[in-house]
Specification:
Order of helices and strands of chain A: EEEEEEEEEEE
Helix content of chain A: under 10%
Strand content of chain A: over 45%
Number of helices of chain B: 0
Shape of chain A: globular
Number of helices of chain A: 0
Helix content of chain B: under 10%
Oligomer: heterodimer
Strand content of chain B: over 45%
Largest sheet of chain A: 6 strands, mixed
Largest sheet of chain B: 7 strands, mixed
Number of strands of chain B: 11
Radius of gyration of chain B: 13 Å
Largest interface: A-B, 25 and 26 residues
Chain lengths: 110, 111
């Protein structure tokens, strides 16, 4: 079946350090979405990337979609304690079904 | 605007029992999906729908049924509960070419 691999599984950073999580697919994706889930909460949509090589920014968050549309990354600059949570990518092949990665759990030490 | 409403929030079932998890959205979204979330495994797609009367299987459909008679409602039926179905279930809806709005989840325990 279709799979999206996400690494790392966990990341512990000191407040102010940067953070990056990566998603990879063995086949070309049609698009990819990113979500954040706070502890005990539900996933919240952050962004969607569709075009090859696309880069989008939301304040301290930078999202990239690879040229081959097989990988994507989320980078957070200067983490804050409010960034704590699990970040998921969700890839689609054909725009209808989204398959989630296993997530990267971010812990930020103040 | 309530968004996506899931009921119940918590449920304990005995092995072999059946039940329906309810999901309703008031945003007129065409697309709706059911995911289950287990520790360390992310969210796995159970069933999804691209409109009223149209449903299809996801990654882990066995043991679950869905129907979509209206745009608003997308119930998930567990036919004969098994301990392996212990999980947190999320219903989500979206417009085409946009991200999902998730409900707050149903925490199901099968004993």
């Amino acid at each position: 079946g279709q799979q999206v691999m996400q690494i790392p599984q966990y990341q512990h950073v000191q407040e102010g350090e940067d953070f990056t999580t990566y998603c990879n697919s063995s086949t070309t994706l049609s698009n990819i979405q990113w979500y954040k889930q706070r502890p005990g909460g539900h996933p919240v949509f952050l962004i969607q990337l569709v075009k090859s090589g696309e880069v989008k920014k939301q304040k301290r968050l930078t999202f990239q979609f690879g040229e081959a549309k097989k990988n994507s990354s989320l980078h957070i600059t200067a983490t804050q304690t409010t960034d704590v949570g699990t970040y998921f990518c969700a890839g689609a092949w054909g725009f209808n079904k989204f398959y989630f990665g296993s997530g990267t759990k971010l812990n930020v030490k103040p | 605007n309530a968004g996506v409403t899931q009921t119940p929030k918590f449920q304990v079932l005995k092995t072999g029992q059946s039940m329906t998890l309810q999901c309703a959205q008031d945003m007129n979204h065409e697309y709706m999906s059911w995911y289950r979330q287990d520790p360390g495994m992310g969210l796995r797609l159970i069933h999804y729908s691209v409109g009223a009367g149209i449903t299809d299987q996801g990654e882990v459909p066995n043991g679950y049924n869905v129907s979509r008679s209206t745009t608003e409602d997308f119930p998930l039926r567990l036919l004969s509960a098994a301990p392996s179905q212990t999980s947190v279930y999320f219903c989500a809806s979206r417009w085409p070419n946009y991200g999902y709005t998730f409900g707050s989840g149903t925490r199901l325990t099968v004993v």
